[in-house]
Design a protein that fits this description.
InterPro entries: Cation/H_exchanger_TM (IPR006153), Na+/solute_symporter_sf (IPR038770), NAD(P)-bd_dom_sf (IPR036291), RCK_C (IPR006037), RCK_C_sf (IPR036721), RCK_N (IPR003148). This protein is an alpha/beta fold. It is built from 29 helices and 10 strands. Helices cover 63% and strands 7% of the residues. The termini are far apart. 40% of the residues are buried.
Amino acid sequence: MEIPLLSDIVIILGLAVVVILLFQRFRLPTILGFLATGVIAGPHGLSLITATHDIEILAEIGVILLLFIIGMEFSLKSLALIKRTVLLGGATQVLATIGLVWLVMLLFDFSHGEAVFMGFLIALSSTAIVLKILQDKGEINSPQGRVVLGILIFQDIIVVPMMLLTPLMAGGTEDVGTALLWMALKGAFVIVFVLISARYLVPMLLFAVAKTKSKELFILCVVVICFAVAWLTSSLGLSLALGAFMAGLIISESEYSHQATSNILPFREIFTSFFFVSIGMLLDFSFMLQHLPIILFFTLLTFIIKGTVATVAARMLQYPLRISLLVGLSIFQVGEFAFILSKTGITQGLLSEETYQYFLSVSLLTMAVTPFVIEYYQKIARVIGAPFTSGEEPMPYNVTAADDHGELPHLDDHIVIIGYGVNGRNVAKAARHAQIPYVIVELNAITVKQERKMGEPIVYGDAVHPMILSHINMQKARVVVVAISDPEATRRIIASIREISDRIHLIVRTRFVQEMEENYRLGADEVIPEEFETSIEIFTRVLNKYLMPRDEIENFTQMIRSDNYEMLRSMAGIKNNSSAGFNLDLPEIEVASLRVLTKDEEIVGKPLLESGVRHRFHVTVVAIKRDGETILNIDAHTYIHKEDILYVVGKPAEIMRFNNYLKADGF
């Protein structure tokens, strides 16, 4: 028996392989390859696909899985942190876009209802495309990434009232007050359900499933949670994608979120490809060619309107112009939810077939250029913002010039910490403990306000601007730590610092090894890539457990670092004469450091020979650390004092027994 959907899947995936291989050869984005596949295989192309409705269902599954994983990688706590971005930034972007598009459409003799509805469509951006690209670039946690995510979340939520208002604008219903009240009640129910599930229900369920140690059951449980919550929100008249995002948030609060993400990721990649292909299948390519000048004009107009409005929205959130421009250059396109909403508009008579094809052409063109724009959006933002950033970025309301100018000019020989995330906070904590003067530069105005109230020497500003660096006495600093999540901004900061001084010791945190070479070239003294330092730390601990000599471990790690971290990939080829004959097949022994807390006079204040440590506990003391100094010449006449740290060798069980004895109460 022939299955039409199976042949269509084979055609789509097979054609996608060929097209994407061709696109990769010319270094074109993968997403663009999927869109092109849809155009070629669709009804307006070669008509290779027959089960178009089934393909749309697979595409919908792709969007569900995409937002499900985004929800898992986020969390309710993270969402609470950006609630201002979601509400203020999202509302500004959506409402201002609708207003401007409404005015433009009135100029082309559209009715008020049609003009507002077109504003609805244009206001929505592509969550699937933008978040995937930002994730691939590692910028989802950058300042622009957080603002973009907040605005996109608001857009996904606002789709629901848009769909309720559409019949009203078409004259299909008059009881809009009841409909909006009913929608608010549904939304409140979903929020309560998510909070209760995240706190109580899902952690208990996943714990019970994880105890079975069945991988199949765990995957099944995660998939059921995803689609069950999506189905619930859909049944309430909300969007499937919003339900999937909520399901991800529920699981993100449990300790099993990382395992769930790794299990679902392969499915997401397959189904999201169907989504992009299905979007391409909607386009009537011949119509686009016939009306190309008009379509290009409206595409450019959409780019300008949406980009400008999103930039203004980010500025209202008190982000610098550079970050605001990056936000505008990220969400200028028309998104996937607009296609769903457009079907409602066609049904209600707010969108003619011709207007629909114009809308499709403009939407797909904006989607198609999105990967190129985001790839180069740092450079584009620099060019656009150059005339407006010749001076210092304005301070937000919560950082007064009097505060800063009253404190910072006295800084000398200090540490400058750029970025106040986890790494920045730890550096500040260490500097505070060591009583080293420091100053923090942070882009998040809310963080600046909160930390300033707690007494932190923190200022608002974008450190890529020399005026900000001058304001924090950069020329007098001894050490600068750059700990931000924006690779392009990091490079610009390094260049700006080196223009000020060559003597400053510059330490840079990056995410990936590939970013090291460029940062060193620009003038960084030390570049610490997170992905590699994690592997170094793991390997060091592994070798320590096998009792490889400390100097050999240090030589090994130094060898890796000196070769630009490439030695780790060829571990088998390392030739080290000093350890060539080292035998890792050792008896069950352990080296441990134990603190002497007991007051037992049988050990404290007596030499090792009289205390009988070796005879009684079957462990050997090989070194003692006392008052910050390490005693290595250990013999029978060496005394043990209270608060000494003893370095001992022995079997794990015997060391544990000795450690219990050394505790304050002894046996």
